[in-house]
Amino acid sequence: MITRSRRRLISATVRYAILSIWGVVAFFPIYWMVSTSFKPDIQWFAWPPVYFPDPPTLTNYMNVWLGAEQYDQTQYAISSQTPLVSLWNTTVIAFSSTFLAVAFGSVLAYGVSRYRILSEARMFQLLMLRMIPPIVVVAPLSLYYSALGLLDTRIGVIMVYFLTTLPYAVWMTKSFIDEVPREVEQAAEILGASRWRTVFEIVLPLIRSGLVATFLFILILTWSEYLLALIITKTQVSTLPIELSKYQGSTEGRVYGRQAALAVGITIPLMVVGLIIRKHLARGFSFGMIRR
Amino acid sequence: MARIELINLNKSFGAVQAVKNLNFTIEDGEFVVFVGPSGCGKTTTLRMIAGFEDPTSGEIRIDGRVINDLEPRDRNLGMVFQSHALFPHKNVAQNIEFGLRMKKVPPEERGRRVREVADMVRIGHLLGKMPAQCSGGESQRVALARTLVTNPSTFLLDEPLSSLDAKLRRELRAECDRLHQVLKRTFIFVTHDQEEAMTLADRIVVMRDGEIVQVGSPMEIYSNPVNYFIADFFGSPSMNLVAGEVVRNNGVAHFRSALFDIPLPGRLSSAGTGKGTLGIRPEHVGINIIGKTGTALPVRLVEPLGKDTLLYFDAGTDRAFVAVSEGLDMADTKIGERLTLSLDERRMHLFDEQGLSIRGT
Question: How many angstroms separate the CA atoms of B180 and B233, rounded?
Fold first, then answer.
């Protein structure tokens, strides 16, 4: 006869065992990335595998990010552009396209939520746009871009990111605007506030956390976008995901340590942004923040 | 000053006509209550006055000026919503101050007026709190203060008390009444609660299916309902309504149902024969009055309320026949006991087959 408390203990043990295994499976690649980035080159492929870099070295980081002296000696000169330039490109492109998407998306969403400027069907079609695989549109897109002279320019990448993330921005911000009771706005209006004043003083502060959550969500997409960037950029503008792929080519071989060092560098900025705004994220992702 | 005229006012939502050809004038300083079941068009009417809905046709005038095309903010009205609609991210003082800020009142004066109205509705101690920290009753007082401070010509109140519990409702009802007397402004109050309407209104407007059914003082509506619906809607406990028919015996009109056979009083004697409903309020039903003859019915339920006792009789219909007895003298009445009832013929109502009241001549 198994007692109640014993059964609970067993079920908890099983639960935690499964979760722990899953945790290891999920986090191992991240651990491996960080660990590899600190390994000297002979340990990248070593068998049996080296779990802890011995001795840990910053060579990979120096080479990749700073183009240090060893760069030429080890003959791993892979990209024509240094990653710092790519980092700058990625930052400019990701932040501006995300800002545009959230700004335009929330205005559009306000119109949808309050004035029904788009029907349910149109809203769904908007999201459907995202269901077209990007690979389908890259060929015509690169033709257009070539004709317009937007190929291999930052503004070109910003525009395409802005357009492809706009549907997400509209859908997400709309759900936050819907949460703001109509009567709260009407109360402001009858007290003498203009429509713009109502939006800026009442609606926006109330959905601030939602906007921040939407911003981060879209930033993650634009920060790590690869396929479109690959097609519409060449040599002038390169983003970090493109740089990352260059370390695994047919001619260069597999430069794991360098690639890992670059990957860590790509990940950290997003994590920093996430940490800065985490207070808003928790509130933004838990809907129903306004007491009715 | 605010005299509000509604002229041939119509509002449709798609195929649904929410308000049908409304004509009504609210006098300056009057307390008018729009009352009716949900979906009767009362809130839509209020929202058209406020400017949140455009009339499909018709005019709204304030002091003779057509305001159909004015924005809500230009109508000089104040509105209190059922949901309070406080700004959740602003504290109580900032909520109250909002309207003054929009009207560009200088800061020192704003502070003074905020404290003034806060004291007026007794929320001076709440000024630093956030709306989420206020109880339902407190929130509604804040909403009142926020409206009061802008000194509107007319107060529009959209079921402001319906989200509160019974005790708070009574308390805030008294508050509304007091404010109306102090401010001498026009009040338009929308509710589905007949008791609120009865206690607050100078005039009650009863609406049903988008139309005005009856307008009158609370006493007029209570004593002379124009139809069955209003007779049933006003009063608690509601009017006894007995279905039966009007017959003539040797030229004398009688009302007859399964249990009653009552000669109709002279003023109702002109009623045509046929189906009809007899109405009488519980307080006009006498119990066991010595020397009077009447109909004897068995008691089904006794409700001692303290001040009165309600007796529910089995009248052979779904609805019990209710009588009120003052005090607790009848509280020990046994279930099943038969008591003789006599109906005060001066207070009898008769409704024809369509439910319209047959008015005495």
Answer: 25
Listed in sequence order, the residues at least 6 apart from B112 whose beta carbon sits closer than 8 Å to its beta carbon are none
Mean pLDDT of B267-273: 81
Looking up tokens 């008294």 gives B174
- Mean pLDDT (chain A) is 86
Which two three-digit tokens encode residue B177? 């009444």
Question: Which of A166, A159, A150 is CA-nearest to residue A118?
Answer: A166
Residues A192, B83: C-beta atoms closer than 8 Å: no
Given CB atoms, is A202 within the 8 Å cutoff of chain B? yes
Measured in angstroms, the CA of A33 and the nearest CA of chain B are apart by: 44
Q: What is the pLDDT of residues A203-238, one digit of tens each?
A: 999 998 899 999 999 999 999 999 889 888 887 888
User: How far is residue A139 from each of residues A115, A143, A144, A222, A238, measured CA to CA in Å?
Assistant: 37, 6, 9, 20, 19
AA identity, residue A244: L
- For residue B135, give both structure tokens: 């109880």
Q: B206 CA to chain A: closest CA distance, Å?
A: 25
> Do residue A187 and residue B78 have CB atoms under 8 angstroms apart?
no
- Supply B73's token pair: 């903010």
The yes-or-no verdict on residue B102 having pLDDT over 70 is yes
- Topology adopted by domain A83-286: MetI-like fold (1.10.3720)
- Chain B residues contacting A, CB < 8 Å? 50-52, 71-73, 75, 77-79, 81-83, 85-89, 98-99, 102-103, 131-132, 143, 146-147, 150
d(CA B123, CA A64): 65
Q: How high is the ipTM of this complex?
A: 0.83
Query: CA nearest B103 in A: which residue?
Result: A192
Residue type for position B224: N
A181 Cα to chain B: minimum distance (Å): 8
Name which of B52, B83, B132 is nearest A181 (Cβ-Cβ). Answer: B83
In contact, B299 and B337? CB cutoff 8 Å: yes
Q: What is the DSSP string of A188-230?
A: HHHTT--HHHHIIIIIHHHTHHHHHHHHHHHHHHHHT--HHHH
Burial of A99 (C-beta count, 10 Å sphere; 0-12/13-18/19+)? middle
> In DSSP terms, which residues pair with A131 in a beta bridge?
none
Query: CB of B157 within 8 A of CB of B188?
Result: yes
Sheet with B65-66: list strands edge to edge: B16-26, B4-13, B57-62, B65-66
Q: How many CB atoms lie within 10 A of CB B217?
A: 13
Q: Are B247 and B256 in contact (CB under 8 A)?
A: yes
- Closest B-chain CA to A183: B85
pTM, 2 dp = 0.80
Out of A183, A191, A290, whose CB is closest to B150?
A191
Contact B73 A192 (CB under 8 A): yes
The answer to whether the Cβ–Cβ distance between A191 and B51 falls below 8 Å is: no
Q: Is A281 on the interface with B (CB under 8 A)?
A: no
Among candidate residues A212, A162, A214, A206, the one with its CA nearest the CA of residue A187: A206
Least confident interval from A247-251, A288-292, B325-329: A288-292
- Best of A191, A194, A211, A283 to substitute, by most chain B Cβ atoms within 10 angstroms, is A191
Contact A184 B150 (CB under 8 A): no
Helix (H) or strand (E) holding A285: helix A278-285
Angle between helix B136-148 and B166-183 (nearest 10)? 10
